[in-house]
Specification:
By secondary structure, the protein is α+β, with helices and mostly antiparallel strands. The chain has one domain (about 10-50). It has one helix and four strands; from the N terminus they run H-E-E-E-E. Strands 1-2-3-4 form a four-stranded antiparallel beta sheet. It starts with 7 loop residues before the first helix and ends with a strand.
Length: about 55
């Protein structure tokens, strides 16, 4: 995440506002040029991968 120049706020925004795609074990949300793969466990969001689209 930090190596790619993406900060925590950009990840939160991508999850909240981005288009969501259902995956086998979670979701992928894309907003702007940031892609976030994550899964939801209870009230926690577990980030798997952060990409530049």
């Amino acid at each position: 995440m930090f190596d790619r120049g993406i900060d925590e706020e950009q990840i939160k925004t991508a999850i909240k506002r981005g288009s969501k795609i259902k995956q086998t074990d979670g979701f992928k949300s894309v907003y702007g040029y940031v892609g976030v793969c994550y899964k939801i466990r209870g009230e926690k969001y577990i980030i798997k991968t952060v990409t530049i689209e």
